[in-house]
Design brief:
The chain has helices spanning about 1-15, 20-30, 35-45, 50-65, 70-80, 85-100, 100-115, 120-130, 135-150, 155-165, 170-185, 190-200, 205-220, 225-240, 240-255, 260-275, 280-290, 300-315. With about 325 residues, it is an all-alpha fold. It is globular and about 65 Å long. About 35% of the residues are buried.
């Protein structure tokens, strides 16, 4: 409300200040005053029909109200003025996806690729839509084509490796992460993902040592980075160093470094299970599964939780 009154004061003195109007519209939106936000965005467009963010603001309001056709029409108006605006195009695609209009989303992306063949963002967007529509293998095939054409974009390889993980081809994922690190030894996402894959899917003593050596210098550099710490803790868990694993994971919990992260809760639950602390194991495995998200190890989390629940029932009876 304070922001609203300040912007209204500015506009009293400068009634045609479209930037102040835009900020006022955003404040109205955040305050739940959608009709006032809508009117303000419309006022902006009367003064400046090319004001990009007013179209996007209206689209956001209509999307919030589930008026997807109106939202789509606003983004299309914007794209008629700025036809190569990648952000606006991505919003248009997401609106089609919200309405389950998959074929339309795919067709307009393909059209955009034909217009801008060198723009990798549209190609990545198409693969992302394939993933969202459940066609992971088609997405993999598409990323492989990009890789074969030698697109110099590290994210392509990272996404491809993650998709191979998703379908259970861990060997292929590991090979791609190793390729990325060979090209870019400081690619922290690839380093972390490789270390996790080795610990999760190929936990031989040799691989666990390799994963630990990969991650150790980065843990020293970024001791509070949640996903690095979690991976390092999981390596310790796989090596049977349960106390150290708990210490690492609890440092995240106690410092409030995680919020509803199912995989970290799962790892902590498994650590407590191995330590014989069943109540804590129950607590964290429940937290891991209550978010209804998929994560590596989810099946094991469900199995161990059921074992713990059955032992609790037996104890009570």
């Amino acid at each position: 409300m304070g922001a609203i009154s300040q912007y209204q004061l500015i506009l009293k003195n400068e009634p045609n200040n479209v930037d102040a109007m835009f900020r006022l519209a955003k404040a109205y939106f955040k305050n739940g005053n959608l009709s006032l936000a809508e009117d303000t965005y419309k006022r902006i467009l009367k003064l400046d029909p090319k004001y990009k963010n007013a179209y996007l603001g209206l689209a956001k309001i209509y999307s919030e109200e589930k008026k997807f056709d109106l939202a789509i029409s606003q983004v299309k108006k914007l794209l008629r003025i700025y036809p190569d605006d990648v952000k606006a195009f991505g919003i248009l695609v997401s609106l089609y996806l919200q309405e389950n209009r998959w074929d339309e989303a795919i067709n307009i992306i393909k059209k955009q690729i034909s217009l801008y063949p060198k723009n990798l963002a549209y190609r990545l967007l198409l693969a992302d839509v394939y993933v969202k529509t459940g066609n992971v293998k088609k997405a993999i095939s598409y990323y492989e084509k990009l890789k074969a054409r030698n697109f110099q974009f590290p994210l392509t390889d990272l996404l491809l490796a993650q998709l191979y993980e998703k379908i259970g081809n861990h060997e292929k994922a590991i090979n791609i992460y190793e390729e990325i690190i060979k090209r870019d030894p400081k690619n922290l996402m690839a380093i972390n993902n490789l270390a996790f894959c080795l610990a999760e899917y190929k936990p031989t003593q040799e691989n666990l040592s390799k994963a630990e050596n990969l991650l150790s210098p980065w843990i020293k550099k970024y001791p509070n980075q949640p996903h690095l710490v979690d991976t390092f803790a999981w390596i310790k868990y796989r090596k049977g160093e349960y106390q150290k694993a708990r210490e690492l994971l609890m440092s995240l919990v106690l410092n409030d470094k995680i919020q509803k992260d199912p995989i970290i809760f799962y790892h902590l639950g498994m650590v407590y299970y191995k330590l014989g602390e069943k109540e804590e194991a129950l607590n964290y495995l429940n937290k891991a599964l209550e978010e209804k998200q998929d994560f590596p190890g989810k099946k094991q989390a469900q199995e161990i939780l059921q074992i713990l629940k059955n032992s609790e029932k037996y104890k009570k009876s």
